[in-house]
């Protein structure tokens, strides 16, 4: 499968979300990556439901919603109503991950689990079959524009082995510090979805930058 590109709107121009959404519609981007932060699970607050609703009115591609919040179960139905295609919760934020994933799926969404840089992938051994997308954080979540943590390559390989050993169809997504310097190596290691915020939106030509990532 050709890698999927999921630009993160966290790096978009919030005064021009319609324009930036249309740029993504007309590009080779596959998903819209939406970062929701609560100021508790991570030391930053991004945006919430009204902004997601506004983006959703213009987006013509699946919404990949990454929840960096505590107690994500409280909001699963609301994100389903806002048309999230993938809803990702953090492993570290869920006491009953299996229950959270079943709830996401029962609301008609694909279920994602994100792992912080320090969380080992083997913790997913007994639940990998229930996960549609594993999001490996390659920076500490909370901010865009940070530099890529190189140990992520080892985690992609370990996760790929775990998925293959169980014959699962889980996708591997990489989030944080993705650029043309690491994208190819990540794909070679087994990544299926690349999130890119600053690298796309701060580029002189975002559409071309997306096309370049897609062509790797
Ligand atoms: C970080 C977010 C990322 C972020 C990526 O907490 O989950 O999705 O927007 O931004 P870059 O690509 O700039 O590291
Ligand atoms: Zn994210």
Report the CATH superfamily.
Answer: Aldolase class I
What are the low-pLDDT stretches, counting only 5+ consecutive residues below 50?
Answer: none
* Number of discrete helical segments: 8
* The CATH class: Alpha Beta
Cα-atom Rg, whole angstroms? 16 Å
Helix content: 25-40%
Mean pLDDT: 98
As for the number of domains, it is: 1
**Quaternary status of these chains?**
single chain
Architecture in CATH?
Alpha-Beta Barrel
Cα distance, first to last residue? 12 Å
- What ligand molecules are bound, each kind once? D-xylitol-5-phosphate, zinc ion
Structural class: alpha/beta
What is the makeup of the main sheet?
A: 8 strands, parallel
Strand order of the largest sheet: 1-8-7-6-5-4-3-2
Rough outline: globular
Provide a short characterization of the protein structure.
32% of the residues lie in helices and 20% in strands. The chain contains eight helices and eight strands.
Features:
216 residues, alpha/beta, TIM Barrel, 8-stranded parallel β-sheet, 8 helices, 8 strands, binds D-xylitol-5-phosphate, binds zinc ion
């Amino acid at each position: 499968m050709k890698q999927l590109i999921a630009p993160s709107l966290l790096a978009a121009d919030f005064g021009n979300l319609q324009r930036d959404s249309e740029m993504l519609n007309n590009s080779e981007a596959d998903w819209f990556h939406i970062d929701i932060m609560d100021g508790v699970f991570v030391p930053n607050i991004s945006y919430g439901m009204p902004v997601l609703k506004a983006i959703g009115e213009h987006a013509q591609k699946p919404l990949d919603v990454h929840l960096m919040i505590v107690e994500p179960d409280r909001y699963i139905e609301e994100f389903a109503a806002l048309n999230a295609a993938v809803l990702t919760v953090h492993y570290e934020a869920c006491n009953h991950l299996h229950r959270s994933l079943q709830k996401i799926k029962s609301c008609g969404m694909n279920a994602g689990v994100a792992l912080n840089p320090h969380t080992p992938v083997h913790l997913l051994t007994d639940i990998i079959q229930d996960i549609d997308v594993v999001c490996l954080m390659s920076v500490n979540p909370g901010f865009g524009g940070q530099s890529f943590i190189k140990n992520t390559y080892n985690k992609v390989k370990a996760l790929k082995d775990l998925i293959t050993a169980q014959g699962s169809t889980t996708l591997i997504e990489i989030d944080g510090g993705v650029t043309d310097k690491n994208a190819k190596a990540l794909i070679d290691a087994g990544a299926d979805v690349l999130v890119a915020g600053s690298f796309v939106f701060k580029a002189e030509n975002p559409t071309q930058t997306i096309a370049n990532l897609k062509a790797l």
